[in-house]
Amino acid sequence: SNLLLISLSGTQRCWNLYGKCRYRCSKKERVYVYCINNKMCCVKPKYQPKERWWPF
């Protein structure tokens, strides 16, 4: 069970625990905020808000 704890705590959570801090996000994931160490907060599609925040 120690291995499970280490793997879970290895990835930092962000954006109200819906995102994960990584250097790279997948194509479907969106970046809303940045974590420490210049990592991106990758948010999966099912956790992304429905409304658009920025006029892209």
Mean of all residue-level pLDDT scores: 81
Largest sheet: 4 strands, antiparallel
Structural class: alpha+beta
Strand tally, please?
4
Q: Which stretches of 5+ consecutive residues score pLDDT under 50?
A: 4-8
Strand content: 25-35%
Q: Widest sheet: strand order?
A: 1-2-4-3
Distance between the termini: 44 Å
Radius of gyration: 13 Å
Tally of individual helices: 1
Shape: globular
The helicity comes to 10-25%
Helix and strand sequence: HEEEE
Which secondary structure elements does this structure contain, and how are they paired or packed?
Layout (H helix, E strand, L loop, with lengths): L1 H9 L2 E2 L4 E4 L7 E5 L5 E4 L13
Antiparallel strand pairs: 1-2, 2-4, 3-4
Overview of this protein structure:
The structure is a single chain. 16% of the residues lie in helices and 27% in strands. The protein has a four-stranded antiparallel beta sheet, with no helix packed on it. It has one helix and four strands; from the N terminus they run H-E-E-E-E. The chain has a domain at 12-47. The chain has one helix at 2-10, and strands at 13-14, 19-22, 30-34, 40-43. The protein is an alpha+beta fold. It is globular and about 30 Å long. The longest helix has 9 residues, at 2-10. The N and C termini lie far apart (44 Å).
Short description:
With 56 residues, this protein is of the alpha+beta class.
Which structural traits does this protein have?
alpha+beta; 4-stranded antiparallel beta sheet; Beta-defensin
